[in-house]
Amino acid sequence: MTANPFSLWVYLSQQPLLWLTVTLLVYATADALSLATGRHPFANPVFHSMWIIAVFLLMTGTSYTTYFSGAQFVHFLLGPATVALAVPLYENRKVVAAAIVPMLAALVVGCATAIVSVVLLAKAFGLPQNVVLSLAPKSVTAGVAMGISESLGADASLTAVAVVLTGIMGAIIVTPMMNRMGISDYRARGFAVGLASHGIGTARAFQVDAVAGVFAGIAMSLNALVTSLLVPLAVTLLVR
Amino acid sequence: MIASLSLILLCQLAGEIAVRAFAWPVPGPVLGMLLLLVLLLLRDRAALFAQGPLQGGGVENAAKGLLAHLSLMFIPAGVGVVQKLDLLAEHGTAIVGVLAISVVITLLVTVATFLIISRVMTRGRSA
Predict the structure, then answer these.
(1) B69 and B10 in one domain?
(2) Which residues of B are less than 8 Å from A161 in CB distance?
(3) Which of A65, A82, A180 is the mutation pick for testing B, counting most B CBs within 10 A?
(4) Across residues B84-96, what is the average pLDDT?
(5) Contact B52, B7 (CB under 8 A)
(6) Where a domain ends, among B31, B55, B73?
(7) What pLDDT does residue A64 have?
(8) B69 and B98 co-located in one domain
(9) Residue (of A102, A47, A152) closest to B78 by Cα position
(10) Set of chain A residues whose Cβ sits within 8 Å of the Cβ of B63
């Protein structure tokens, strides 16, 4: 057994420890930079962590399966985090109850818009049917969207990528867009970004305003429920 | 802390079991969230439920700890992009374009619906 750096790399690169450490370290750095820029939309920590880790994997020739053996511990937390949304929902039940009608209207209309727009646009752009199906649940949180995708017989790993891209784009665009349109109701702003961009949008909303964050969290959890009911219906009507 | 995390996992587990057993078209964690919400509401009404992690802010703190790092949890799925480079080379521009347009439309429609309905309601109340 030789103790040269290469054999050490070969050993470590197959271990979950290295990839879990890389994930947390890159995120901690990206998050610190985001904080240093005063939470500038383009300093989105998910976006920068994602491409840095992806480039690192490609440069070291590491497979996604090997990376995921470590990163799965972080990925697993998506489920418990969805359950945890019950707490902000419970704590803000009075604000939520007061805005229940506009919320439910925005939920149903927004959810249908998210699904129908992506399916029709994907078809108009001439994407293959399997890709169209994989993009359909892109506005809900990763774990839920992947489940919907699997039940449609689509490509769940493509869905995961679409979910993350949608989240990042929504999180980057929401603040400049809403400011330019002069929308100052943080309940509405938060609700829209939580519905369109799930957890990444919700994380962004919490950075901007606490009320926006709560409404984003509610939109994200309610949308997970409604989307899982609406996607199979929309797919039957629009694709098949 | 451990008891609170166990409660969150138990809710998720119960959600997964119910979804599988009754073949409901709802994700397990979402049902788990509803279950935890019901437990929190019950706690305020019946002393029977105000025990363990459901008292003294136990489950609340654990949940907030998880939600504070929600962005982090999307990174492993996002890095999955490395598996899709062939597909993205072929359809990447179209996919990114479709997602970008769809997210802008969704944001606009959702925020407009919320504001319109909320204005109609306040007007109805003051009239």
Answers:
(1) yes
(2) 77-78, 80-81, 84
(3) A82
(4) 89
(5) yes
(6) B73
(7) 93
(8) no
(9) A47
(10) 83-88
Question: Are A82 and B110 a contacting pair at CB < 8 A?
Answer: no
Tell me, yes or no, whether A190 and A238 share the same domain: yes
Q: Which residue has the higher pLDDT, A239 or A223?
A: A223
Q: Which of B87, B103, B111 sits opposite A189 (nearest CB)?
A: B111
B110 and B87 share one domain: yes
Q: Do both A163 and A202 map to the same domain?
A: yes
What is the tally of structural domains in chain A? 2
Quote the domain boundaries for residue B20.
1-73
* Contact (Cβ atoms closer than 8 angstroms) between residue B110 and residue A106: yes
CB atoms near residue A182 (< 10 Å): 6
* Complex prediction ipTM: 0.88
Kind and range of the H or E element at B41? helix B28-45
Q: What is the pTM of this model?
A: 0.86
Residues A34 and A88 in one domain: no
B89 and B48, same structural domain? no
pLDDT (mean) for A90-117: 91
Collect all residues of chain A within an 8 Å Cβ-Cβ radius of residue B80: 64, 68, 157, 160-161
Shared domain check, A104 and A60: no
**Same domain? B8 vs B68:** yes
Are B75 and A46 a contacting pair at CB < 8 A? yes
Chain B residues touching residue A60 (CB < 8 angstroms)? none
CB contact under 8 A, A229 and B37: no
- Amino acid (1-letter code) at residue B122: T
Q: What is the pLDDT of residues B43-83, one digit of tens each?
A: 888 777 777 777 777 888 999 898 888 889 999 988 988 98
Number of domains in chain B: 2
Residue A153 to chain B, least CA–CA distance (Å): 14
* CB-CB under 8 Å, A87 with B60: yes
Contact (Cβ atoms closer than 8 angstroms) between residue A36 and residue A86: no
Average pLDDT, whole number, for chain A?
A: 89
Both B57 and B96 in a single domain? no
Instruction: For residue A151, give the chain B residue with the closest CA.
Output: B25
Q: Do A158 and B59 touch (CB under 8 A)?
A: no
Alpha helix (H) residue ranges in chain A: 5-12, 16-36, 45-60, 64-76, 78-84, 86-91, 93-98, 100-124, 129-135, 142-151, 156-180, 186-208, 210-238
